[in-house]
Design goal:
Distance between the termini: 35 Å
Structural class: mainly alpha
Number of strands: 0
Order of helices and strands: HHH
Shape: flat
Strand content: under 5%
Helix content: over 70%
Low-confidence stretches: none
Length: 83
């Protein structure tokens, strides 16, 4: 019985966090090399309003995803059950 429970638990955890960990792993492998300094130097040479807008959109997206994770983590449908 414990074996079935652990099997289900690992599958549920992988389904919940698998995509997030894969994205984090892909980003860390991608930026572990000299790609980040090259991108920064390339963007500094371009001086394009499109790059500035892209940066603003990226910053807003990161903010919204962070806020969504914070809100999701604090939601409790049984908040009044504690009283």
């Amino acid at each position: 019985m414990l074996k079935k429970l652990l099997k289900y638990e690992f599958r549920a955890t992988a389904r919940t966090y698998g995509g997030m960990y894969l994205a984090l792993l892909a980003a860390s492998v991608l930026f572990a090399g000299p790609l980040a300094p090259r991108l920064r130097d390339w963007a500094a040479k371009k001086d394009s309003p499109l790059l500035d807008a892209g940066y603003a959109v990226l910053a807003a997206a990161v903010f919204l995803v962070s806020a969504a994770f914070l809100i999701k983590g604090t939601y409790n449908p049984f908040i009044y059950f504690n009283f």
